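Hi U.,

Before I forget, here's the chain from the pilot set. I'm dumping it here mostly so it's searchable later in email.
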Amino acid sequence: MNPGSGKGGPSVDELTAAAEALEVEVHVLAENQDLGELARGTEADVLGMAGGDGSLGTVAAAAIERDVPFVCVPWGTRNHFASDIGLDSSEPLAALTAFREGHERRVDVGRVGERVFLNNVSLGIYARLVHRRERRRRRREIFARLRAIVISLRERRFTERFVVDGVPVRASAVLVANNEYRVDLLSLGKRDRIDEGVLATYCSRGLRRLRWTERTGKEVRIETRSDRVRAAIDGEPTLLDTPVELRVESGALRLLVPPHGSEELASGTRENES
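Structure:
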């Protein structure tokens, strides 16, 4: 459990009590603890994470490495992954029932290099804004979000040069997603499935009136002019060496979902038949 998450939801104590009532062992992450190391080092036969998408991806990677089921407890700010797999992000306590009564589904993950991502990897203007947000968060600046919006409007003409799978592209942002998003003129929406075994690459021009182009495949290679590029992986800022190599791993994650969510998930994931 990431105590820095859970804004507006149940408290750490409430979530802990609900988990322990199901005989689930809880570890509250302390400052400077390595989440991935903790998840890989435990002997638990199921791994779960209560936190945001970045934390979920770290523990999901450990679950794949150890070949154990994974439980998603939506307890972050946006909870994109939880929403796309059919969970009610407003009820994180309900997700805990997956530990005892869950149905196992196989879903895909993406990898950039060896790092797992559940949602997407972005380059360009969005990644720049995520990096600025993180710097300001560390400085405890109250108006970081507002300033990011102002910056985005000021930089609405901003584009960069990329080479995507050998094709030169000039774009405001390049986003590579674990399976396809619904796309309209102004935004990317939800994913209907996370088990089709594809990466979807979206290149956008502009910010106020977005124009998206899309392609799909099993692997993506992105080149830039620099040796390192700012990126956001599931909304978390990072620097990546270039060229950036991404791939999809079909059915790699053994996802446990609550009984009440099995019907919603049935159309978007495939059940483990083992």
